[in-house]
Specification:
359 residues, 6 helices, alpha+beta, rod-shaped
């Protein structure tokens, strides 16, 4: 470009900067068209929709190549007043792309086209707007949520959630090709579990993605689900995964064990303090003289004990139990010997004959 052409371009830029920007009845003006990085420039406007939240940021490459050309660190946002006006003091930034530079005014959530106010940033590199500016890519997030879940996850089972992710194209050009990527956990490529091609998203259009998210078996702790469309409109949502059912069951088990130990200690203390005169015969009694146990019918597991023992009683033990051989009237047995004889004669005839021989 020749020197005269550069002069003409500079003059044209100055004229544009001096004049207010008008778009569909919306007017925006800068207090100065030249600023150093860090200096404050006042932006005023009128004719805007009341209550609309606006974002103000300094961008390079004419503000036509998306947020990648803007100094987002110095961006500010403010709502439009009830009378349709606004006044914002913006710190001139240092865009990551060369000038021509602008103050980019865009609705945070809305369909109106953005407004660019030309500004010269002193000392900032100058260049040209790339030919690919017509394919600018910029998206805004309208909605995202992680919903759902299964009751079985309370007990360590796999949990199934649903990510709803809505993005909007706020630019004046069509988003021709991009890729929606959903990650679980960190931000590396190894964590991508869902990809989807996004094509032909026209100006002002929105698109909603519904993605199933499955947490692993026995998930414990906090999980992060992140999404973006080729690096545009990134979001992160956290989900707490704790198997409260298992925790409750374990806590209940510990409580039952403690209760059982306390109950057992209480019984031992009660038996230690019990007066022998008030003691009751337990369900199972050991007979030292016989080397055996006396099990009552109401004892726990008495049927099983009888089955294992076979309901057998040796002859010597039977004799010692009923006092046989001590002579008439000298035994201390309280058994009905006649009834016992009938029973034994029917079941154990050999035992009866041995008893008669010993009498």
């Amino acid at each position: 470009m020749t020197k005269p052409a550069l002069v003409v371009a500079a003059v044209a830029l100055a004229v544009l900067a001096a004049a207010p920007a008008v778009a569909a009845g919306r007017v925006a003006t800068l207090s100065a068209n030249v600023a150093k990085p860090g200096e404050t420039v006042r932006v005023t406007g009128q004719g805007w929709v009341a209550g609309t939240l606006l974002q103000f940021v300094t961008c390079g490459e004419g503000g036509l190549t998306g947020s990648a050309a803007c100094d987002t660190r110095a961006a500010v946002a403010t709502p439009v007043r009830a009378d349709g006006t606004f006044v914002v003091d913006l710190r001139a930034g240092a865009p990551p792309k060369p000038c021509p530079c602008v103050v980019h005014i865009a609705e945070v959530q809305g369909s109106a086209l953005p407004v660019n106010l030309p500004i010269s940033i002193t000392g900032h590199p100058a260049g040209t707007i790339p030919a690919t500016a017509a394919a600018a890519r910029e998206l805004t997030v309208q909605e995202f949520a992680l919903t759902g879940g299964t009751a079985a996850a309370w007990f360590g089972a796999r949990d199934r959630l649903t990510l709803t992710y809505t993005v909007r194209n706020p630019t004046a050009v069509t988003l021709t090709s991009a890729t929606a990527q959903i990650r679980l956990g960190g931000g590396g490529d190894d964590n991508i579990f869902h990809q989807e091609v996004v094509a032909d998203l026209g100006p002002g259009q929105s698109r909603t993605f519904t993605v199933p998210v499955e947490l692993p078996l026995a998930a414990f702790g906090q999980y992060v689900v992140s999404a973006d469309v080729s690096g545009l409109a990134p979001v992160r949502v956290r989900h707490d995964a704790y198997p409260w059912g298992l925790i409750l069951i374990n806590a209940l088990g510990v409580a039952l064990i403690v209760w059982g130990l306390l109950r057992r200690l209480g019984r031992r203390r009660a038996l230690r303090d019990l007066d022998p005169a008030d003691a009751l015969l337990p369900a199972v009694v050991r007979l030292g003289s016989l080397g055996a146990y006396l099990v009552f019918d109401d004892a726990p597991g008495s049927r099983r004990l009888h089955r294992h023992a076979g309901a057998q009683l040796s002859l010597d033990n039977l004799r010692a139990l009923i006092g046989a051989g001590a002579g008439p009237g000298t035994g201390d047995s309280v058994l009905d010997l006649d009834a016992l004889g009938h029973v034994l004669a029917r079941r154990y005839p050999r035992s009866i004959s041995l008893l008669e021989e010993n009498e």
